[in-house]
Amino acid sequence: MNFYKPYILRMQERRKYYFIIALGFFFIMFLWLFTILFNH
Amino acid sequence: MSILDWFVLLAFLAYTIWDGTRSGSKAASIRDYFLAGRSMPWWAMGLSVMATQASAITFISATGLAFMEDMRFVQVYLAVPFAMVILSLTIVPFFYKKEVYSAYEVLEERFGLGTRLLTSGLFLVSRGLALGTVIAAPAYVLALILGLPLWITILIIGITATIYTMLGGVVGVIKTDVKQMAIMLFGVFFALFWVWYKMPPGIGMAESVQLAGALGKLNSLSLNFDISDKYNLWSGVLASLFLMLSYFGSDQTQVQRYLTAKSLKDAQNSLLLSAVAKVPMQFIILFLGVMMYIFYIFHPGPLSFRTAELEGYNAQDEIGQTLRESHFNALQSARTNAALAYVESGADASKAEFYETDAAVRYVRDKELRRLSEATGTEFNDTNYIFPYFIITEMPAGIIGLIIAAIFAAALSSIDSALNALSTCSIVDWYQRLHRRKRSDIHYLRASRLSTLIWGIVATAAALALGETNSIIELVNQIGSYFYGSILGVFILMLYFRKVHGKAAVIALISGMMVVFLADLMYVQHGSMFLFGVHDIPAGAQKMWSYLWLNPIGTGTVVLVGWVTSILAAQTQR
Questions:
Q1: What pLDDT, on a 0 to 100 scale, did the predictor assign at position B534?
Q2: Mean of the pLDDT values across residues B350-379?
Q3: Minimal Cα distance from B241: which residue of A?
Q4: What is the ipTM of this complex?
Q5: How far apart are CA B454 and CA B325, in angstroms?
Q6: Partner residue opposite A7 with nearest CB, options B89, B212, B221
Q7: Is B497 helix (H, G, I), strand (E, B) or coil?
Q8: Residue B379: exposed, middle, or buried by beta-carbon count in 10 A (0-12, 13-18, 19+)?
Q9: B275: which chain A residues are within 8 Å (Cβ-Cβ)?
């Protein structure tokens, strides 16, 4: 296998990865809101 | 503990050994033994990845940490979703297509045998000895709960893990990890339910959250950018990203989970499971710690949660102890009343009153811990004993056994994966690679079983000798942590820097570890920066870099040094 060949995603798979990245940002937002709303 | 609890605990251990070993007889070669014949589905590997990461100490310490401080520790895991996406699209397809056994195997093709043996050797030494701590730390806590001598709990954990890992191979490891993860999750959710169930009438979830918020215990995100602060959003997302990439992408204990996948998609999905579940799980574990704190506002707790081992010290000063306890109990009941008043009125004045009474309770507890440190001549800390104390004193019979089984499960699921990974590297990177004569499949399979057994014995012996070898193990752990960011740098050089050759990679790896070593010796005092030797650290000085930031420093140095060295080498050749 070529060391440098990038891994290419099909459209269907791409959605899954976008979802996980969005989830990563959601976790940050959730913790931020949780702290603001309840920690006082 | 009742007989029922002992029965549940022993049944769990017996079942684990049976379940782990029964799949081993099918293995005919090391491909079956180390890679499960590449047949595993994504959910089993995914749960195994999570179980491997959650050791008994992260399980008990995290609840203790939230009890003592707040929930900011959860931020360390915020990088996991991003790290998993990056790994699934880069190194995972690469490893999968290469059909490798060990993560360090791929380094040989690019950088030569030296780099492979250096990285694999560093992994073996650091992981092998660190495993001693992974066995000993929960064994300490379990010895106290079960009232057994320490060496017995060490042997129970060490022998159980070694037997089924040796006979069952990676299939046994993954199969038991799945069940151990289920027991751990049950333990966490049941404990959370039980805390809620045992709250006094009028105190539900909403009131508990209100009280915890008033004490600042629900603080779970800090936007403050400070490189010497352990837990904030920036260290959790930026610095921790490098730790997670390195841990899941180049540490054999984790890489081996997804090398067993039946398809590339399964390998990727197994990592994405952690991306989805890791942050919520850690959040719930920390939330449980906070809820236990609220629980002890309404059910007066002890001065120290490490009660059993202190009877000797306290008996010497019985009157003093009685006075201290009655003073502490008076403060606790003042706090209970203030909490009830605050829940009822919600007024700012009663909130301030509640905060002050809580500060008084905490002050007395801190003073008691300092007194015990002086009396015992050690750094006395009861963080890891809070959750076990709660289990033993508050939970119903039968469930106690099950939750203690969950602590064993958390310990075993980390130890079995490490044993299996150590054996893989010893056999594939060293024995099979350096042995000139090729032997039969059965020979290598037997050698793999033997090497798992030897690593099991080494780790258990290291745990038993921990008192004497503590400083060696600490040193090795530290070297291991210098290695983490740097090894990631070597993998980046391999994948993305075509011109970097073997010697440059070794020079880069060693420079990366040295720079991290120096960065770890940097301290800040009165706003100025100092570089200190190992033994002359002044009191009050604070480490300049919190441990998470050492990872990007290591990775960055390796990539930079490797790249520059290869350019210089190319120019001298011309």
A1: 57
A2: 90
A3: A24
A4: 0.91
A5: 49
A6: B89
A7: coil
A8: exposed
A9: 20, 23-24
B254's CB contacts (< 8 A; 6+ apart) are B49, B52, B53, B247, B248, B417
Q: Which residues of B touch A3 (CB under 8 A)?
A: 94, 110, 494-495, 498
Q: Mean pLDDT score of chain B, rounded to an integer?
A: 90
Nearest alpha carbon to residue B12 among B557, B411, B525 = B411
Asked if residue B300 lies in contact with residue B381, where contact means CB atoms within 8 angstroms, the answer is no
- CA-CA-CA-CA torsion sign (B191, B193, B195, B198): negative
pTM value is 0.92
Q: Which chain A residues are Cβ-neighbours of B496 within 8 angstroms?
A: 4
Q: Which long-range contacts (CB under 8 A, 24 or more apart) does B183-186 make?
A: B183/B12, B183/B402, B183/B405, B183/B406, B183/B409, B184/B51, B184/B54, B184/B59, B184/B406, B184/B409, B184/B410, B184/B413, B185/B281, B186/B402, B186/B406
Q: Report pLDDT for A5.
A: 64
Q: How far apart are CA B16 and CA B184, in angstroms?
A: 14
Mutation to test the A interface, candidates B221, B286, B294, B497, most A Cβ within 10 Å: B221
pLDDT, tens digit, 9 for 90 and up, residues B9-19: 999 999 999 99
Could you give the CA distance from residue B280 to residue B3 in angstroms, rounded to a whole number?
35
CB contact under 8 Å between A3 and B78, yes or no, is: no
**In contact, B72 and B222? CB cutoff 8 Å:** yes
- Residues ≥6 apart with Cβ < 8 Å to B421: B127, B251, B252, B253, B256
Residues B269, B273, B275, CA angle at the centre, nearest 5°? 110
* Cross-chain Cβ contact A38/B209 below 8 Å: yes
In sequence order, what are the residues at sequence separation of 6 or more whose Cβ sits closer than 8 angstroms to the Cβ of residue B199? B208, B294, B295, B298
Please list, in sequence order, all residues whose beta carbon lies within 8 angstroms of the beta carbon of residue B146, skipping any fewer than 6 positions away. Answer: B1, B153, B404
The separation between the first and the last C-alpha atoms of chain A, rounded to the nearest angstrom, is 56
Q: Give the chain A residue nearest B72 (alpha carbons).
A: A31
Dist CA B74 CA B231 (whole Å)? 8
Nearest chain A CA: its distance from B294 CA (Å): 14
Is residue B198 within 8 Å of residue B204, measured between CB atoms? no
pLDDT at residue number B379 = 74
Please indicate whether, in this complex, the C-beta atoms of A1 and B221 are within 8 angstroms of each other. no
Sign of the torsion angle spanned by Cα atoms B192, B196, B199, B204? positive
Check if A35 contacts B (Cβ < 8 Å).
Answer: yes
- Minimal C-alpha gap between A31 and chain B (Å): 6
pLDDT at B350: 94
DSSP classification of residue B523: E
Nearest residue of chain B to residue A32 (CA atoms): B221
Whether the CB of B106 is below 8 Å from some CB of chain A: the reply is no
Measured CA to CA in angstroms, residue B78 lies from A36, B233, B281, B471 at distances of 18, 8, 12, 32
User: Nearest by CB to A27, which of B81, B218, B494?
Assistant: B81
